[in-house]
Specification:
168 residues; mainly alpha; binds protoporphyrin IX containing FE
């Protein structure tokens, strides 16, 4: 594979990594805690969290598509790669572990985007208007935070397996 195609692929792969994994870490370590601290009893909290969510979700979905497409380019261009579902060497076994962690991230993302977030945004709209069930909002919010932290842990595992594969 030509070095320029691989370079472009790695560039896109790294940008998508920064957007997705970097975004998850920024959200969980900085944005959410400070937003909660500053807007604790302010109804604007619900609207702000919804706006951040609506902007981040499409970026994560797009990053996943870029990572999968460039990942296949990089895999097929790697000397260690022996073909689909062939795990005869350590590199391909580490890549398999990386894919299992990525699969976990996709499942978390699907549960968040199709099960938790729609209910949370309905509850947020009601809370913003001073209606709705505060306990129900808290319950959904806790699920969102837990699933996102799980995604951070899986993302770090993906980077760990990648570092291991790159060293081989
Ligand atoms: C959450 C998703 C992913 C993240 C965060 C991620 C992250 C990374 C990073 C940071 C690198 C190092 C690039 C470098 O050395 O400059 C890399 C390399 C690589 N990634 Fe991914 N990646 C992801 C998904 C994928 C997928 C889905 C595939 C395959 C379909 C893949 C295949 C590869 C390959 C083959 C390499 C080169 C490894 C080597 O140098 O031995 N990645 N990835």
């Amino acid at each position: 594979m030509s070095p320029s195609i691989l370079a472009i692929s790695y560039f896109a792969h790294l940008i998508a990594t920064v957007v997705w994994i970097g975004g998850l870490v920024t959200l969980t370590l900085f944005v959410w805690p400070e937003t909660r601290r500053v807007l604790a009893d302010n109804p604007a909290l619900f609207g702000l969290l919804t706006r951040i969510r609506k902007r981040f979700a499409p970026l994560t979905n797009f990053s996943l598509v870029v990572l999968v497409l460039t990942g296949f380019v990089q895999m097929s261009g790697d000397a260690n790669y022996e073909g689909a579902l062939t795990f005869n060497n350590e590199w391909s076994r580490v890549m398999l572990a990386k894919h299992i962690a990525i699969f976990g991230m996709v499942i978390c993302g699907l549960i968040l985007q199709y099960a938790v977030v729609p209910a949370l945004e309905r509850a947020s709209l009601l809370r913003e208007r001073g209606k709705g069930d505060a306990a129900e909002w808290e319950r959904l919010r806790r699920r969102e935070v837990r699933l996102t932290w799980l995604n951070v842990a899986l993302g770090i595992a993906v980077l760990g397996f990648t570092a291991w594969a790159t060293a081989l």
